[in-house]
Amino acid sequence: MFSVDDHLLHLEGDALPRDVSAAVARALLADGARCRAPVAGAVYGTLLNDRHALEALGNAVNAAPYKAPPRAPVLYLKPRNTLAGHGARVVVPGGQDGPGVQVGASLGIVIGRTATRIAAFNALDYIAGYTLVADLSVPHASVYRPSVRFRARDNFCVIGPAVLARKHVADPDNLAISVAIEGTPRFTANTATSVRKVAQLLADVTDFMTLAPGDIITLGVPHGSPVAHEGARATISIEGWPSLAVEFMGATA
């Protein structure tokens, strides 16, 4: 079992995560504390789970070699080297002249107990809580073959700052998400545009693989996510939750 009573966060320098009230969590973060990822399980990203992303592909989803839209969740693994916490510093490949880093803000679903072939009607019972995930990638065109080179760089999966207990999230399928990058318009999205809602995603994924306590699966990155460049700071927010900050720097910084 993996359980969260309130707000779970792991401050840098602490041996273990703390489970604290929302007020305490905000006070700790207000002092400028950096964090580690609050959980240490496997992290799975979900592709093409945003309705707008599928619409943008148009007829390309019917072209060879796939010839149809995906009939099951399209997943990829964010390996251990990518995991980072609130305040993480991320190196931008290619420096000032490079393509930057796409900041994909996603709802992270944190598994509370072993989930194998679960049904949608009780899938939420297997969730310990929710968190923010900045699923970072180097901008690239392919969605069917996620490139390790583009998605699995160090610190390319920033999680936190806290895991909110499931009781604090009344409707995970209707959450406003925003990304603020200095010098660019605020990007906004909503989990309501997901093709598979939270319960159905868990049911479909656990039909072919087991999710373990402490694992995270993302609901998916919204279409049109913004790009950050060297020297930028991004703040990822979900309404009323503690915000997640990421700093982008050059390779020699």
Q: State the end-to-end distance.
A: 41 Å
- Work out the strand percent: 25-35%
The figure for the number of domains is 1
- SS content category: mainly beta
C-alpha geometry: globular
Helix content: 10-25%
- How many helices? The count is 4
Question: How would you describe what is shown here?
Answer:
There is one protein chain. The protein is mainly β and 253 residues long. It has one domain: Alpha-Beta Complex (Fumarylacetoacetate hydrolase, domain 2). Helices cover 11% and strands 33% of the residues. The protein is built from 4 helices and 16 strands. It has helices at residues 22-30, 51-57, 148-151, 198-205, and strands at 7-11, 18-20, 35-36, 43-47, 74-78, 83-84, 88-91, 101-111, 127-137, 157-165, 176-181, 187-190, 216-218, 227-228, 233-238, 244-249. Strands 1, 2, 3, 4, 5, 6, 8, 9, 10, 13 and 14 form an 11-stranded mixed beta sheet that branches. A 5-stranded mixed beta sheet has the order 7-16-15-11-12, with no helix packed on it. A hairpin with a 5-residue loop joins strand 11 and strand 12. The longest helix has 9 residues, at 22-30. The mean pLDDT is 92.
